[in-house]
Amino acid sequence: MKALYDTAESLKIALAAIKANKSRGVLTTLGIVIGIMAVVTTMTAANGLGNTFRESISALGSDVLYVSRRPWVISGNFFEFRNRKNVELKEAEKLDRYLANAVAINPTTNTNKNVKYRSSTLEAITIIGTTDKHMMVSASVPESGRFLTAFDVQFKRPVCVIGSEIKERLFEHVDPVNKRMKIGRTSYRVIGVMEKQGSAGFFGGPNFDRQIFVPITAFMKSFGGHNRDFSIAVKAPPNIALADFEYEVTGEMRKIRKLRPTEGDDFSINQMNQLVGAYNKVMGVIVIIGLVITGISLFVGGIGVMNIMFVSVTERTREIGIRKAIGARKRAILSQFLFESSAICLIGGGLGLLLAFGVAALISKFLMPASVSLPIVVVAMCVSVLTGVLSGFIPALKASKLNPIDALRYE
Amino acid sequence: MALEIRNVNKTYMMGTEEVRALQDVSVSIKENEYVAIMGPSGSGKSTMMNVLGCLDTPTSGEYHLGGQDVSQMNDDQLADVRNQQIGFVFQTFNLIPRANVFHNVELPLVYGGVRPSEREKMAESAIEKVGLTDRKSHKPTELSGGQRQRVAIARALVNKPSIILADEPTGNLDSTTGEEIMAILDDLHKVGNTIILVTHEKSIAEHAHRIIRLKDGRVESDITTARANGAANGVN
Question: What is the value of ipTM here, to two decimals?
């Protein structure tokens, strides 16, 4: 009971003290406000980047394996992969025959070409030769028009489906569907526009909005099929674990390539998770660095609070003496000042959070979707209080240890 | 409640010099006594007051307060003794400036762990005893010196302590107000409180029934005053 009344009294004193020194409180709080805002913004931005990244690579499909010459994320000896032979189109056909349980098998190949519509040109656009199966392995769909059909592929029709960025940059206000455009030196008719994917481009990842899909047969006719490297997308059946299916695909590929048991794989099997893993590794480091830097600003804010708490203790030495004379125990005095510093930091944390909400709104408007999530709010509040307790502890301890006689005599 | 100090010494260092503030002092004060401690400055009366008030512990010697050996207690135990057994009235009032009259008076009860409803009743009654009921939501700065000292007295007696220790209670007041304050202390004595008064003014000390004079840290004299006899006669 006694502790409860002490605590209520401590809270009362703390709030009164902050109210009595408003301008000083505001300045002290500023350090915490900025610190918490920085920390929250960092966490929010990291979250936003993560979401954007995951969304933008979702087009790859989480249950799709990509058989290609090289791994997407290269670790180790690059030259080991460089001398591998290309994945060929006929290997895709064989894989299609052997892997009876695969939902879909889609070979693709790509090149970079300049594209042109009337007088405007875009340089180095990724041109992807693919088939109608693309729709089965990828989550992305056309926003207008249609995707390639088996008919388009079979008859090598010069038609193309463009990414949203191509539409915006090349066609601007014109509806691209049924317009003719040049890819390299060949004329293609636009039959569809893909939905916007959002860019993972700023991580050095692929930009799926800056692509043009053409029938793989037309691709080879226009840009040559000799010595081309393919990637084979294999969609796993729903009733099998991806790892097991990967084992199966590896086995079939080794059979196709007639590898001896002692030889290693001379191809790679990629999946979306590898990109996620690589991203998490890189982002993890960036976020930690970000948190350390912003944490330093919070730490500086905490030092400011500690400083002002020392002032507060000195200022109220006499009051501490009075309280002790009439029977306040050490703990009562200690909690009085801990409450004060925690309240300052909590108020600062609250304001910092509000500012962070504002910054997140700006980021959302101009950069990428980002919002302050509930766990971040909870963490920020806990960190605020913790900062308050830590920075108030030494001054509060000093206050609680004051000798009542000396404190009463203090002028 | 009776208190007794036996062979108490208090020495402390002032710079490099050792000051013997109290030397072998033995005093025993019975319940409902009205004692004045007098002496010139440097006589050790402040130290005596601090020791009696449990603000300080003696270097050697014993201090028994209502059967408890106070000289062996730690800081928190001393805080509890101050809270429960002793009411202080200081020369400089020592009120908390930001808190109003009611809260100042209530404070010892807060630290004593008394329930809020009970607290309010006890504080109201103490404020009424010193005649400040209409001022209870004023801040100390809005009160006169005499009123402030009355608040301090209300705070001193709110916890129904065994002893009220008044250190130069009239030192910062004019003589008329001083007399008013002394009248309140006299009344408190009449209703059964033990009062210890530290003063260097003879006229104030004369309110007491027993005067202990200190000089150079020793008890110089310990006399019962005429007034005590008068009071005793009055009782008879």
Answer: 0.91
